[in-house]
Amino acid sequence: MLSLNNVTHVYPNGTRALEDASLTLEPGMFGLLGPNGAGKSTLMRCIATLQTPSAGSIQFGSIDVLRQPEKLRAVLGYLPQDFGVYPRVSALELLDHLAVLKGIAGRAERRETVETLLQQVNLWEVRKKAVAGYSGGMRQRFGIAQALIGNPQLVIVDEPTAGLDPEERNRFNDLLCELGQNSVVILSTHIVDDVTDACSRVAIMVNGRIVSIGEPHDMVAKLDERIWRTTIARGELEALRASANVISARLRAGHTEVHVLAEERPSGEFVAVDATLEDVYFATLTQERAPRAAAAHA
Ligand SMILES: Nc1ncnc2c1ncn2[C@@H]1O[C@H](COP(=O)(O)OP(=O)(O)O)[C@@H](O)[C@H]1O
Ligand SMILES: [Mg+2]
Q1: Which residues on adjacent β-strands are paired with residue 189?
Q2: Per residue in 117-145, is it b (16+ CB within 10 Å) or e — as a string?
Q3: Where residue 295 falls among pLDDT bands split at 50, 70, 90?
Q4: Is 159:114 a contact under the CB 8 Å cutoff?
Q5: pLDDT of amino acid 152
Q6: Which of 8, 9, 11, 46 best tests ligand 1's pocket when mutated (most atoms within 8 Å of CB)?
Q7: Among candidates 29, 25, 13, 18, which has minimal Cα distance to 197?
Q8: Cα separation of 81 and 101, whole Å?
Q9: Under a CB-based contact definition with an 8 Å cutoff, are residues 208 and 177 in contact?
Q10: Sign of CA dihedral 229, 234, 239, 245
């Protein structure tokens, strides 16, 4: 079990990237959903022992993460958002090297581990090519393979599906789901679809705060019979925003389709629609941003 208690992080330039975050996670797949700048990567780097939070504590099983970072690293698999420089050695060699660092000393065991992972992430055919020459999707899959070395009990993947095509994305999400049977898996993303089916629990982060946490099904149920849809001309959006709680607006075939959150049907043109996790996400963002927007106008 992983638990975070009142974790706060302030960068040296004063940015409050993480504000009093508390969480308790059991094995399974946990989705951390939030827009760019919400603090997802900061939170994940703190758990992965790459930076020490300004305040708070983190515990994983019997490990005090901030006091015993090396113990956590031994059971951790981490895929950072930016993997950095890619060396000119083959995937096979690099993975083998990383497995040595992870403490898999036996040659036979290492070979078995490395070969299985390369097959799992579908890089077997290109295992002898230099990682430096890989496409974005291939690099991402390599990053996933290295994160899974040594059956980690805690897996942290930061925006892992960026750069993957839909088929790769499904394959990857299946892989994570499987891991979630025994390990704590934390997946951060700004793409709601990545977490909708895969994650048993989800947190929504905005401006450094965890503003909502729960099971996707329960979160969606709270919006039951309160989501209304209509289609308007593009120029009508601002006027509608002034009179209704518009949570999302998107262009569809030249028209703008809007979702409004309201207890009652806003007007005759609106139809009731089943709420989705995307509605939950956009409703949360709208609500969290509203007070700040109002303050900015004042
Ligand atoms: N090294 C850093 N120094 C200063 N500010 C940072 C640093 N890294 C991130 N930030 C800021 O902290 C906030 C959260 O960033 P981040 O954790 O990367 O969010 P996310 O991963 O959700 O996009 C942002 O305002 C970002 O600009
Ligand atoms: Mg990030």
Answers
A1: 33
A2: bbebbbbeebbeeebeebeebbbbbbbbb
A3: low
A4: no
A5: 94
A6: 11
A7: 29
A8: 21
A9: no
A10: positive
Q: Which residues line ligand 1 (CB under 6 A)?
A: 11, 13, 15, 17, 34, 36-42
The best mutation among 7, 8, 9, 15 to test binding of ligand 1, ranked by most ligand atoms within 8 Å of the C-beta, falls on 15
Q: In 3D, which of 201, 148, 200 has the Cα closest to residue 175? A: 148
Position 298 scores a pLDDT of: 46
Instruction: State the closest ligand 1 atom to the C-alpha of 42, by its place in the atom list counted from 1.
Output: 17
Kindly give, in sequence order, each residue whose CB lies less than 8 Å from that of residue 276, ignoring residues fewer than 6 positions away.
192, 196, 220
What is the pLDDT averaged over residues 226-243? 93
DSSP, res 86: -
Asked whether the CA dihedral 7, 206, 168, 177 is positive or negative, the reply is: positive
Q: pTM for this one?
A: 0.90
Q: What is the pLDDT of residues 53-62, one digit of tens each?
A: 999 999 999 9
Q: In sequence order, which residues have a C-beta less than 8 Å from that of residue 187 and are 6 or more positions away?
A: 29, 30, 31, 32, 157, 160, 176, 194, 195, 198, 199
172 residue type, one letter: F
Torsion of CA 80, 206, 14, 295, to 10 degrees: 160
Q: Please state, in angstroms and as integers, the Cα–Cα distance from residue 198 to each residue in 102, 180, 190, following that order.
A: 28, 10, 14
Rounded distance, CA 130 to CA 35, Å?
33
Q: What's the pLDDT band for 216 if we cut at 50, 70, 90? A: very high
Residue 157 CA to residue 144 CA, distance in Å, equals 8
Domains and CATH numbers, the chain: 2-214 (3.40.50.300), 221-297 (no CATH)
Model pLDDT, residue 168: 79
> Quick one: which atom of ligand 1 is closest to the CA of 159?
21
User: What are the φ/ψ torsions at residue 225 (nearest 5 degrees)?
Assistant: 65, 20
